[in-house]
Amino acid sequence: MRIGIIGCGAIGTDVAVYADTMNEIEKIYLFDIDKKAEEKLVKKIHKGKCKYVKDFLDDVDVVFKAASQKAVNECAEIVLAAGKDLILMSVGSLFDDKFRGRLEDIAKKKHCKIYVPSGAVCGIDGILSACIDKIDEVTLVTTKSPKSLGKDFDRRTVVFRGSARDAVKEFPQNINVAASLSLAGVGFDETRVEIVADPVATRNSHKILAHGGFGRLRAEIENMPNPNNPKSSYMASLSAIATLKRITNPIQIGA
Ligand SMILES: NC(=O)c1ccc[n+]([C@@H]2O[C@H](COP(=O)([O-])OP(=O)(O)OC[C@H]3O[C@@H](n4cnc5c(N)ncnc54)[C@H](O)[C@@H]3O)[C@@H](O)[C@H]2O)c1
After folding, report:
1. Which residue's C-alpha comes closest to atom 38 of ligand 1?
2. In this structure, which CATH number among 3.40.30.10, 2.40.30.20, 3.30.360.10, 3.30.420.40 belongs to the domain 124-223?
3. Average pLDDT over residues 205-231
4. Closest residue by CA, ligand 1 atom 7
5. Is the CB–ligand 1 distance for residue 89 below 6 Å?
6. CB of 236 closer than 6 A to ligand 1?
């Protein structure tokens, strides 16, 4: 398999370095608007080559995007129109219903797939299964230090309670987790979000609570920051790598 990576930052680097060790991956094309990031990464791997997206697109099976929401808007349609599978980290771009609908239409027409790694949350597999039947409620409780939310509280304070769609407008830094949960389950308007500023919190944590016909679900994660970008959770890189392995693996585990 040949892969193109757009975005050679913290997550792109983790994925490229791992992909370099995978027997199933024979070539890794790299693109970043920051040429220094591209050059730094290509030196770390053996199967890598730096090229513009339009120059590697014909030669890849899958494109992995870990750049920015803007980058998704700029070239997701081009990748899918070329009939290539796409793995998206900037899931927040899929909040736009019209844009998401366009991507789905192209993917169907071109028989390719859009993969959304579960990112910095856990429990997405349970939500995917549970919503085959009726789910009464899905809530995401995100807890961060007041500083990382741009606040200055000295006690635990709920700073937002509402729909995932509104949470993202007020707290865009929470966008990816809320988006993957909404897409897996009951959508952006029905998914409830609570954002908590807690001075005791040393790590970003996400808790998913759901109940419905299946029973009750409670999944919680406390994330270590990515050593190369403290704003990204290391788990996001691991979930991206797990998605890549899933694509190459004949045995598909989980919902
Ligand atoms: N799904 C999740 O749970 C989750 C978790 C963490 C991060 N993310 C998202 O993943 C993305 C990458 O995160 P990161 O920690 O690696 O960020 P990062 O800042 O370390 O790296 C991003 C890289 O993308 C490059 N870039 C920006 N715009 C570009 C463009 N238009 N074309 C090509 N390259 C471009 C930058 O130069 C940078 O090197 C971000 O959009 C972030 O929001 C998702």
Report:
1. 9
2. 3.30.360.10
3. 96
4. 232
5. yes
6. yes
Q: What residues contact 241, with CB distance under 8 A and at least 6 apart?
A: 14, 15, 18, 19
How many A from CA of 67 to the centre of ligand 1?
Answer: 3
Nearest residue by C-alpha to atom 21 in ligand 1: 9
For the chain, the structural domain boundaries read 2-115+234-248, 124-223
206 is catalytic: yes
* 226-236 confidence digits (pLDDT tens): 999 988 999 99
8 A C-beta contact, residue 65 and residue 6: yes
Look at residue 174 and tell me whether its pLDDT is greater than 80. Answer: no
Q: Which of 68, 144, 181 to mutate to test the pocket of ligand 1 (most atoms within 8 A of CB)?
A: 68
The three-state secondary structure class of 111 is: coil
* Residue 244 CB contacts under 8 Å (≥ 6 apart), including other chains: 3, 15, 18, 19, 22, 62, 64, 87
Q: 2-115+234-248: which CATH topology?
A: Rossmann fold (3.40.50)
Between CA 191 and CA 198 the distance in angstroms is 22
Q: Check pocket membership of 126 for ligand 1, CB cut-off 6 A.
A: no
